[in-house]
Write a structure and sequence with these properties.
3-stranded parallel beta sheet; alpha/beta
Length: 217
């Protein structure tokens, strides 16, 4: 872990406007993928725990690309949380929010982005002392209009919308005052990863990194 590693979810969400959501099928792709995304200006990388190589991919990316801030996504329970932390994950993302996950996050604090989709989810998170969230699944949960509506009663909350977000919809989310960043897989298309087309991925990352030019409040 480098000295520049964000220690809070808020700091993590302000590093870049897009967090690539990565499902790594082949371990040999992990390091060149991380380097390609960092070269394009996207250092915060979420590796989903959806494949057998995900944990080892996190370890290798963290070791070989120290300028990357590598975290774990699709963390569903305390066991996932513990394994991800031991693998070297520097932040944790979950599609939801449960009491066991809240307890795990308190026991081994890392920047934590739990998923919410409703006002009740947000109230449960606030009761747990959280106010930075993943809005998931974003597009099927009302998209940017839903987040705009939530801003009134939940003005202190900030979000990273993920789930169906792409290069065409990301700007609408990033224009909202309660959105700090978005998460998406479009910057690392599966066909480009399979082909080892790291230059294409760097180009996509560079375009994504330019989506927001001004600091967010």
């Amino acid at each position: 872990m480098t000295d520049a590693s964000p220690t809070t979810a808020d700091a993590l969400m302000r590093v870049s406007p897009v967090i690539p959501v990565l499902t790594i099928e082949r371990l040999e792709d992990a390091v060149p993928l991380a380097r390609a995304l960092v070269a394009g200006g996207l250092p915060v990388l979420e590796v989903t725990l959806r494949t057998p190589v995900a944990l080892e991919a996190i370890t290798r990316m963290a070791e070989a690309a120290p300028e990357a801030i590598v975290g774990a996504g699709t963390v569903l329970n305390p066991g996932d949380y513990e394994r991800a932390a031991k693998a070297g994950a520097r932040f944790i993302v979950s599609p939801g929010l449960t009491e066991p996950l809240i307890a795990a996050a308190r026991a081994a604090p890392l920047p934590f982005l739990p998923g919410v989709a409703t006002a009740s989810d947000l109230m449960r998170g606030l009761d747990a002392g959280l106010n930075r969230f993943k809005f998931f699944p974003a597009e099927t949960s009302g998209g940017a209009p839903a987040l705009k509506a939530l801003y009134g009663p939940f003005g202190e909350c900030r979000f990273c919308p993920t789930g169906g977000v792409g290069e065409n919809t990301a700007p609408a989310y990033l224009s909202l005052p309660n959105v700090l960043c978005v998460g998406g897989a479009w910057v690392a298309p599966a066909d480009a990863v399979r082909a080892g087309d790291w230059d294409r991925i760097t180009t996509l990352a560079r375009a994504a990194a330019a989506l927001r030019q001004e600091p967010v409040a």
